[in-house]
Design a protein that fits this description.
- Keywords: Acyltransferase, Transferase.
- One of its GO terms (molecular function) is acyltransferase activity.
- Pfam families: Acetyltransf_1.
- This protein is of the alpha+beta class and about 160 residues long.
- It has one domain (about 1-160): Gcn5-related N-acetyltransferase (GNAT) (Aminopeptidase).
- It has helices spanning about 15-25, 40-45, 95-110, 125-135, and strands at about 5-10, 55-60, 60-70, 80-85, 115-120, 135-150, 150-160.
- It has a 7-stranded mixed β-sheet.
- Strand 6 (about 135-150) and strand 7 form a beta hairpin.
């Protein structure tokens, strides 16, 4: 099924599908932020501008996305992309996440990016295993950074070279 997955940079027309994925994926188990509910397509596009994500799909359906941006506006930090990824629950385990990671490595290489980084909750063992399978390693840990579902959770910082 991996060969049937396509990727491309996000476009304005993707907003509805990406908003749906956000509503289905993000919850207290995988993000310390309040659940993302976009008020409108326009609000979504202001926060997630076209071209700031790679989308993956099968056929005519968008199945997931990977957002990327420099972690700060500093020129000295411009060689790094900070990532966030979400895959529609119906397509998790089908290779969409790996295809997105392959795509960001290609985009990063083209743009001269040397480092990819991300953050993941220590309680999200599945995500941590996925990131490790993509070549990410732990570069730091903010111990007991969040209090979620009645327990303290570490914020794990992970990275990989492009």
């Amino acid at each position: 099924m991996h060969s049937e997955i396509w990727t491309r940079l996000s476009e304005m027309r993707d907003a509805g599908a990406l908003m749906e994925i956000d509503a289905l994926v993000w919850d207290v188990c995988n993000t310390p932020a309040e659940r993302v509910i976009w008020d409108s397509r326009e609000q979504y596009l202001q926060g997630c501008q076209p071209g700031s994500q790679i989308v993956a799909g099968m056929g005519d359906r968008i199945c997931g996305y990977l957002g990327f941006k420099p972690p700060t506006p500093l020129p000295s930090n411009g060689h790094v992309y900070e990532l966030n990824i979400a895959v529609h629950p119906d397509y998790q385990g089908c290779g969409v996440g790996h295809r997105l990671m392959d795509a960001i490595k290609a985009v990063a290489t083209e743009r001269g990016i040397r480092k990819l980084s991300l953050r993941v909750l220590s309680s999200n063992a599945g995500a941590m295993a996925f990131y490790r399978s993509c070549g990410f390693t732990e570069q730091g840990r903010l111990v007991d950074e969040f209090y979620l579902n009645g327990q303290y959770v570490d914020d794990v910082l992970m990275w990989r070279k492009v």
